[in-house]
Amino acid sequence: MPVLLLQAIYLRMTVLRLPEPEGPRAGRTGQGPVLRLAILGDSSAAGVGVADQKDALLGQVIHRLLSRFTVDYRLLAATGSRTGDVLGWLQDMSEFDADVVVVALGVNDVTKGVSLRRWLRQQSALLDRLVHDFGVKYVIVSGLPPMHDFPLLPQPLRWVLGRQAARFDKALHAMVAGRPDATSITIDMRLDRDNMSEDGFHPGPLVYAAWADAVVAQVLDHQGLLDGADRNA
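-> structure tokens emitted (233 positions)
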């Protein structure tokens, strides 16, 4: 424990802090029926690790959809956000218009010591809020990344956080599997210095591209979203 604490303190003092990328976080683009898309989450959802939103998750998803849909998009994400923070944002909102929502949360819950039980309760409440209160048709929940691959993290801290992230990820997929209104996705890619950002903690363009591929595959595979887009046209 003393070693882990010292490593955590050292990282907080020395880590390279990358800004959130430039670019619009809301708008409409493309052609065809209207698909209302929202992305919720932490720094990875915000696109930290690239310089412009066009290379982040939001921009890469839009790029893959704009030839088939008019994408009405919205990004609500902030560096350091935990699931409880995002749930608080939604509780303060009276409406949230979206057909599909992509959620990217969990890494900060792991690093900030949120318990697995509490986190699952918050994740479930977040999905309920989106679906039952706001009428979101489908939620795509991003699994946790393999933190044991993060180049930034020294051993044994990397191993400890990696094990905890794997526990959270397994429980998340099991929870989402029981819901007809959501699905969970995993990016099948080993993370290293070649595809991560320069800080060794956030995705680089190649990781965001693979993540966008997984999101878009779910969108195109979900007939209810396609039918809803036709009605929105």
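The mean pLDDT is 91.
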